[in-house]
């Protein structure tokens, strides 16, 4: 089997939500981020926010559309890819039924749905912006870790290791994980009906201020973690002082 052309480098995370306006307001209030113009193909139903080397996007969905999705399909991880053909052939060798969902004239992409990955959807975008790739956790702002819910953590971790051609490592608690360009991706067991991204860790220069704003906004805060638009966010470098 030949290797993929690119070293794995996360571009961003896209989540599907019912109330896009509420998600945008909460990101602005707690994270202090303004909505990014994003890409030309984002449209009005997608709000994108730049977080250092990465981006976080929310896509509006109707109640009917969201209810028809498996829990895993509400999240998509986007990756840089300069050679989609080679990436497509690698996925084919692994038995993936890759989908090309791009509209005519839209940037080329390669997508694999959650049912194929066992955790959440994966998408490789041609011509995606280059980001800094390192072997250590990123010191600059960005997404530093993801915890994915799956029914079979060991099997799914091994499956992803083949996709990204890296070795499965162990978190301190023994949880299987991959280290992809400085991003830690952990796989934890979830009961039937659960799935997708369970937790996202952010490395932010103003983490303590973000935590304080989360408390002030009425968000559920537990140590260095809080809930934002239905997702648990951990602050990689927050001080865990009690609320005053």
What are the defining features of this structure?
eight-stranded mixed β-sheet; single chain; 2,3-Dihydroxybiphenyl 1,2-Dioxygenase, domain 1; 244 residues; disordered C terminus; 2 domains; 14 strands; 6 helices
Textual characterization of the structure:
This protein is α/β, with parallel strands linked by helices. It folds into two domains: 10-126, Roll (2,3-Dihydroxybiphenyl 1,2-Dioxygenase, domain 1); 142-235, 2,3-Dihydroxybiphenyl 1,2-Dioxygenase, domain 1 (Roll), CATH 3.10.180.10. The protein is 22% helix and 33% strand. The chain is built from six helices and 14 strands. The chain has helices spanning 20-31, 63-67, 84-93, 114-117, 153-164, 207-217, and strands at residues 10-17, 46-51, 54-60, 75-81, 109-112, 121-126, 142-150, 169-170, 176-180, 183-189, 196-203, 221-222, 225-228, 231-235. An eight-stranded mixed sheet has the order 8-9-10-7-11-14-13-12. A six-stranded mixed sheet has the order 2-3-1-4-6-5. Strand 8 (169-170) and strand 9 form a beta hairpin. Helix 1 crosses helix 6. The longest helix has 12 residues, at 20-31. It is globular and about 50 Å long. The protein starts with 9 loop residues before the first strand and ends in a 9-residue tail after the last strand.
In short:
With 244 residues, the chain is α/β, with parallel strands linked by helices. The chain folds into 2 domains: 10-126, 2,3-Dihydroxybiphenyl 1,2-Dioxygenase, domain 1 (Roll), CATH 3.10.180.10; 142-235, 2,3-Dihydroxybiphenyl 1,2-Dioxygenase, domain 1 (Roll). It has helices spanning 20-31, 63-67, 84-93, 114-117, 153-164, 207-217, and strands at 10-17, 46-51, 54-60, 75-81, 109-112, 121-126, 142-150, 169-170, 176-180, 183-189, 196-203, 221-222, 225-228, 231-235.
């Amino acid at each position: 089997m030949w290797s993929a052309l690119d070293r794995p480098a996360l571009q961003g995370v896209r989540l599907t939500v019912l109330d896009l306006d509420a998600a945008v307001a909460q990101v602005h209030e707690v994270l202090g981020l303004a909505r990014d113009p994003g890409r030309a193909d984002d449209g009005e139903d997608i709000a994108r926010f730049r977080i250092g080397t990465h981006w976080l996007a929310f896509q509006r969905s109707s109640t009917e559309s969201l209810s028809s999705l498996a829990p895993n399909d509400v999240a998509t991880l986007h990756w840089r890819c300069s050679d989609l053909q080679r990436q497509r052939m690698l996925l084919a060798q692994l038995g993936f039924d890759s989908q090309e969902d791009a509209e005519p004239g839209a940037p080329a992409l390669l997508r694999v749905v959650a049912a194929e990955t066992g955790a959440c959807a994966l998408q490789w975008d041609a011509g995606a912006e280059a980001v800094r790739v390192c072997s250590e956790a990123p010191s600059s702002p960005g997404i530093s870790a993801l915890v994915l819910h799956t029914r079979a953590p060991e099997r799914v971790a091994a499956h992803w290791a083949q996709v990204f051609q890296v070795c499965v490592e162990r978190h301190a608690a023994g949880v299987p994980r991959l280290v992809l360009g400085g991003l830690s991706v952990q796989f934890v067991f979830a009961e039937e009906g659960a799935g997708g991204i369970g937790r996202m860790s952010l490395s932010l220069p103003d983490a303590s201020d973000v935590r304080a704003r989360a408390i002030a906004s009425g968000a559920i805060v537990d140590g260095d973690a809080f809930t934002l638009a239905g997702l648990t966010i951990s602050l990689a470098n927050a001080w865990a002082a009690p609320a005053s």
